[in-house]
């Protein structure tokens, strides 16, 4: 599977709050795992690095010091804050106070409907 490393801008018109809600979530997603599935523990080292959606709209950098920076194409102000690993999820805590859960699934991150893969 190959992904393009060229940036792509989404020209959908949304206000900043809508974009933040879409890109960074803010509400926990419903867990779709079967009840019998055992959660796998993800360590911080497994998620550290640069991630981006296949279309390039969402980019996320998880740093080893527990901080992150995120960008959404077309949004003027980038998101930043801290994160921690909670079982098989990562929780972003934005400087504005917003908390966003991210699920780690098969080497990808799922955040607010976006699948993020390791960046090029």
From TrEMBL:
<dbReference type="InterPro" id="IPR020955">
    <property type="entry name" value="Uncharacterised_Atu4866"/>
</dbReference>
<dbReference type="InterPro" id="IPR038646">
    <property type="entry name" value="Atu4866-like_sf"/>
</dbReference>
<protein>
    <submittedName>
        <fullName>Uncharacterized protein</fullName>
    </submittedName>
</protein>
<dbReference type="Pfam" id="PF11512">
    <property type="entry name" value="Atu4866"/>
</dbReference>
